[in-house]
Specification:
With 99 residues, the chain is α/β, with parallel strands linked by helices. It has one domain: Hypothetical Protein Aq_1857, Chain: A (Sandwich). It has 2 helices and 7 strands, in the order E-H-E-E-E-E-H-E-E. The protein has helices at residues 5-14, 61-69, and strands spanning 2-3, 21-30, 33-41, 48-52, 55-59, 71-75, 82-86. The chain has a 4-stranded mixed beta sheet with strand order 3-2-5-4. Strands 1-6-7 form a 3-stranded mixed beta sheet.
């Protein structure tokens, strides 16, 4: 997983002090641009641990495949997209109809 500097800053702001990381619950969209469904967690969540830039995500084994290949970005402009996620077309676990 790659996390851009703007996304790193946003994610660190979203995570309360002393909390472990984020639970990843999938996404809305496709590999060409989606919104990740994440929730801060205090304790490590059962599942696969994916870490990038010091930010930890917990996901199901299938979702971890998408996270491993993903890039997270943050668009802070007034009409920006906010936190977005993309990954290579055809990645195993992708929800689009590309396979």
């Amino acid at each position: 997983m790659q996390i851009t500097k703007p996304a790193q800053t946003k994610l660190r702001r979203l995570l309360p002090d002393g909390w472990t990381g984020f639970r990843y619950n999938g996404f809305i969209g496709t590999c060409t641009g989606s919104t990740p469904l994440i929730k801060p967690v205090k304790e490590p969540w059962k599942g696969v641990r994916v870490e990038a830039a010091g930010i930890v995500f917990f996901a199901s084994p299938r979702d971890a495949l998408v996270l491993d290949a993903a890039t997270l970005d943050y668009d802070s402009r007034f009409f920006g997209k906010g936190l977005t996620m993309t990954w290579p077309h055809g990645t195993e676990g992708c929800g689009c109809s590309c396979h």
